[in-house]
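re the bet — no i am not wrong, look at it urself. input seq straight from the record:
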Amino acid sequence: MGLIKKLTVAASAAAITVGAAISASAETSVLRIQTHYAPDTVSGKLATQYIEDIQAMSGGDIQVEMFYASSVVKSVETFDAAATGILDCDMTGGGYQTGKNPAFQFVGDIMGGYSTPYQQLSWLYYGGGLDAAAELYNKYDMELIGWWVYGQESLASSKPIRNADDFKDWKFRSPPGMETKIFEKLGAKPIVMDFTEIFTALETGIIDGADASGLANNVGLGLYDLVKHANYPGFHSMPSDHLACNKAVFDAMPAAHQRIMKVAMEALALRTALTFEKKNAEAAAQLRSEGVTLYAWTNEDLQSFRDAAQATWPEFATTPEAKALVESHMSYLRQLGLVNE
């Protein structure tokens, strides 16, 4: 055998050996993730894109069994299902866990805090929020991977909602918790009812308005077929959806897989904010053409709501974790000039 042929054979054998070694050392992460969104909704499609991204970036080494529309357990039970091993990851939101610890209010829906998804995400990634939130999630054996924030919600009303003065004696559907206290401070009369009851309550006049969702989603619900007033851009509520995983499961994943999941969440966050900014703008144009009046609040009126909201935060900061998160938010809001002091 000639020298060149010997070298070629040796190189081929070495390549096979290296390839076999790489194959033998490859690790696979298999995850079961549940979201409350249906697969055909905008957010459901965005969640699907995230799963496709992490699978592609890992070369297929991250494998996901995805459950939509809370098909395994109820939405509020997803967090515990992941923490106890029924699932591996929870793709709902921290707001569902306020009964566990009021601190989750301040990672789930920081009412009266930030004006845009970008500011809220900025707190998480550049304002110390991720470290502060990690302590909360780790206490319950979970790891916060990241947020995806679809933006400010808008109200639906049968009466003008031009500013805080119009909230006096305004009866509206409210979710339970901190929101009811905030609006009561502004003179409104919040009525806690299930999301599914909103349409009938508006139709029959039991309520004057409703806190349901973002403008585009409210259009989809048909709320503005019944009432002809809304506020846009929104200001009162901007929920943070999260991806949180069982800490033991996540810690056991290869570092490369952990990095892929966290960086892909940053991509999902940007994609979500941009998607809903466009869809809400399209909804606003459609509503104006249909005779719905949209009110853009002045900076002074927006501040009046923030003041009422931030005055309510201490009432819910009743645990060390909640107090730490409120202090973190307040510090960052001062840096952004969103606190009136």
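see?? Residues 52 and 336 are 35 Å apart (CA to CA). told u. also The mean pLDDT is 90. so pay up
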